[in-house]
Amino acid sequence: xDNAGSTSRAMSADRACTEITLPQxxxxxxxxxxxxxxxxxxxxxxxxxxxxxxxxRFDTLEEAQRHYLAFARRRGFxxxxxxxxxxxVTSEYIRAAMVCHKVGHQAKEKEDTQKPxxxxxxxxxxxxxxxxxxxxxxxxxxxxxxLVTEFCDDHNHPLLKKWSLTGFLxxxxxxxxxxxxxxxxxxxxxxxxxxxxxxxxTLYELVExxxxxxxxxxxxxxxxxxxxxxxxxxxxxxxxEDLKSRDKDFYYRYKLDDEDRVQYLFWVDSAARKAxxxxxxxxxxxxxxxxxxxxxxxxxxxxINNHGQxxxxxxxxxxxxxxxxxxxxxxxxxxxxxxxxxxxxITDQDGAMRAGIEKMFPNTTHRNCRWHIVDKATKxxxxxxAKIPGLWEEMNDYINCSxxxxxxxxxxxxxxxxxxVQNHEKIAALxxxxxxxxxxxxxxxxxxxxxxTQRREGFNAVLKKYISPANSVIEFVLQYVDIQAKIMKVxxxxxxxxxxxxARSWCWHPIEQQMEKLYTKNxxxxxxxxMSYIMSYNIRQAMVQLGACQxxxxxxxxxxxxxxx
Length: 565
Description:
Layout: H1 2-18, E1 57-58, H2 61-75, E2 79-86, E3 93-100, E4 136-142, E5 145-152, H3 163-166, H4 177-188, H5 193-203, H6 214-226, H7 232-246, E6 251-256, E7 262-268, H8 270-278, E8 283-285, E9 298-304, E10 310-318, H9 323-336, E11 344-347, H10 351-360, E12 365-368, H11 370-386, H12 391-401, H13 405-419, H14 425-432, H15 454-466, H16 473-500, H17 510-518, H18 521-535, H19 540-545
Parallel strand pairs: 8-11, 11-12
Antiparallel strand pairs: 1-5, 2-3, 3-4, 4-5, 6-7, 7-10, 8-9, 9-10
Helix pairs in contact: 1-2, 4-6, 9-10, 12-13, 17-18
């Protein structure tokens, strides 16, 4: 009984020495303050775990490994299993031996005379030279526990003297289970590996205290991503089905190819479908890459709510940017939105996308992003135009200040003749596309606060904070749902501000006070800016004389008002 009691106390002491918790690491990971026993560097003072001995017992093999790991790290060497033998009857381990990482002989590389020499010289690599070190600990099962039958701590090579250096040995770079759980949380919000290491260094109080490297963490994250490598789409569809069980108006569709690989995927939730009924008058749409590991283009539909904010109205993944793929996506968009096509849509200059829009949204006004067209034109004709004084100024004036399409065409043709650039192909091509991007052709169309796809690009910028190109589809979808929740919260905040806050009056004109009661806060602020601009022409007295004290409701768009929803 006395031997059993002393053994139990020894085992309890061993477990106390090797237990790992977060954020306070154990002695196996971060050394507590203790005596300075002459080890190099006074700052690296650690306590020594009890050395294994021939009569020591452990409840499990894993417990024995943890104890030997703690001892090996304190001594300055790494360990590995030399062998583990299973019982032929129970198929459980009954014998094992752990040895120094320097055990064994260095393998000699055989020169392959048949293999041609590489054109590019091979990089010189450092290797871990094995010295046939005799250090080892052997164990076997006896009376239900693991008994140390042999222990040798003689080494024929130098040991590491600094605690911080032992953390780079392979056996000591394992990520503790508690850390793994926390890293999974950080991984789920798409935090960068470098930022994760900063967080862990804060928890461990020192960078040197983290028992693994950024490379180890990156490898662990790669392992997490590989877990759903072969079940990615099954997990995505299962998640969609779960959403549909909780949201009856959630809609999704997908299409597989001949090898059961996803070609197209589209989804939209009930909140977006409801919002589209009120805000289908202007949609920004485009496809973007680098959002998932399959390099499938991501195609979001972006609208504008009554607060002037960008909102998500559905999105999809496409195999590639061909017209038939866009036709499939737009067809499903129409089905999800009860057959209501967008009144106006703005996109980048893409032929396949235009063909899909013309087929599925024939009555929709399609406008191309002016910024992209002008930017491309600047690169193509900029050097030529710069050589002709006044041409670039005239061109910009006609593009930006023409009020009608007829006025633009007359002024453009006059400019062509004046500067004698009739035969320039790029300028002629720019003019031929005029009806798809010049503002004068859209004066009677509704494109609020934008002439470019900046809202879609702004959404992409937000998306890149949450998504990385290494994400799977299910990881992307989960982050997309989080973004949607964030957008809804911001919208609720705007509604609260409009309800609780009172805008500062600019001129106390009756129209200003009337609009404050009708418009949402953001839109009323924009209205005040426009009104102050108009009043700068000293027309206030004229408005009073004419009795212009109320804005006719015919000029107030309901979609900007409180009652838009």
